[in-house]
Amino acid sequence: MPVLSSLLLALTASASSALLPRVDAPAPFNSSLFKDLNVSRGLNYHYYAVPADTGKLTLLFLHGFPSTSYDWRHQVPFFQDKGYGLLVPDMLGYGGTAKPLDPQLYVSSLVTRDIIDILDAEGIEQVVVIGHDWGSKTVSRLANYFPERFHSCAFLSVGYMTPALFATPFEERINLSKAVLGYDNFGYWDFFSSEGADQIILDHLDSFWDIAYANDTTTTITDWSPLGALEAFITNDTKVVTVDYVTPEERAIQMEAIRQGGLAAPLNWYKIARGTLEGQDDKGIPQENALIHKPIFFGAALRDYGTVSAPIFLAGALVASDTDSSVTIREYNSDHWVQMALPDEFNGDLLEWIESLGLDA
Ligand SMILES: *[C@@H]1O[C@H](CO)[C@@H](O)[C@H](O)[C@H]1NC(C)=O
Ligand SMILES: *[C@@H]1O[C@H](CO)[C@@H](O)[C@H](O)[C@H]1NC(C)=O
Ligand SMILES: *[C@@H]1O[C@H](CO)[C@@H](O)[C@H](O)[C@H]1NC(C)=O
Ligand SMILES: *[C@@H]1O[C@H](CO)[C@@H](O)[C@H](O)[C@H]1NC(C)=O
Ligand SMILES: *[C@@H]1O[C@H](CO)[C@@H](O)[C@H](O)[C@H]1NC(C)=O
User: Fold this and answer.
1) How many angstroms does the Cα of residue 32 sit away from the middle of ligand 1?
2) Structural domains of the chain sorted by starting position, each given as residue range(s) with its CATH number in brackets
3) Distance in angstroms (rounded) separating the CA atoms of residues 8 and 299
4) CB-based contacts of 100: which residues, under 8 Å, 6+ apart?
5) In DSSP terms, which residues pair with 214 in a beta bridge?
6) Atom 1 of ligand 2: nearest residue by CA position
7) Which residues lie with the beta carbon below 6 Å from any ligand 3 atom?
8) 232 C-alpha to center of ligand 5: Å?
9) Where is the secretion signal located (predicted)?
10) pTM (2 d.p.)
11) Residue 307: which pLDDT band, with cuts at 50, 70 and 90?
């Protein structure tokens, strides 16, 4: 309870400046470094911004579902102390950023434009971009639409999503994953895209959080991924042993952020991918940018069975690059949440890769 009340205090204190919702991730984030930007299409983005020391690169960290910038709490102090510039937004639908309910507003051509608006507002020409989960889709599309704004791209848990991926009808994707993995890896997208799923999850949030952070990740094969399984699991309020690397205080902060923002907006990330909106939008990707012509880092989570990072998809990550670009792959004995599960290992690898790019002064 003390954590929740201090979070609420922080929220109230920082709400003074505007009508805009303000949800600052707590320490180790420095609350005075959060900013808001009304991007060109008139939506507010809330983001953490640390200017780079002279000669240092700026790193752009993009989180996934169902999260906020707080997912990067172990990376922010590590890279900030080393003088790197940081941009860590709450993605569309989350935290202090706008939460429109129209799924069409979530397609990649629009979300990537928002991110570029943030770079423009900060006066930053090029960044190193790092994505996790659905953040990896945004990294993919940033590389497709705005390759000139990046030195290099890093994908964590979820690899490069090719323009062809969402052009394939959902039923075919389900069948393909069954054929390749032996289970219908994407079945939960059906539940996430269904009417009322947001309220069902909120009504059973403890059970939902449990399975999202289950210590035994094979649970996701039986109780998360298959069609119908996740809804059955949470409506039953089933509990499982959760990971030990998220403290009870951190869990309370994450769950409170979900309760405050709700899930109607975040689930749009699934709706556009389950349906045809993302596939249609991806037709606008210039053919010459379908492959990434920049150095790539892929952090594979070897015990993540719920997303396309399952080891079997490793090869797919390589397809992302053209023959001249360098690909660095690191494997983690981790579940989906590598940046929280193995922060020291991941931070060290990311730093080594960034330094190896030879871009720092
Ligand atoms: C937070 O950032 C502000 C503005 O840069 C700075 O003045 C302050 O010392 C920082 N606080 C901490 C605890 O680092
Ligand atoms: C954001 O910008 C749009 C125009 O792009 C404007 O109509 C709207 O009033 C602005 N919102 C805020 C909160 O400033
Ligand atoms: C998927 O597999 C099911 C069951 O084998 C089959 O009935 C269906 O036609 C397949 N759908 C597609 C789109 O391949
Ligand atoms: C959690 O998972 C780890 C690694 O799979 C295992 O060694 C450990 O025994 C598990 N802890 C609990 C409490 O189940
Ligand atoms: C429902 O809960 C019971 C007891 O907690 C458990 O044995 C059962 O497997 C659960 N069912 C589902 C679908 O998770």
Assistant:
1) 7
2) 2-356 (3.40.50.1820)
3) 35
4) 43, 92, 93, 106, 265, 268
5) 242
6) 42
7) 169, 171-172, 175
8) 8
9) 1-18
10) 0.91
11) low
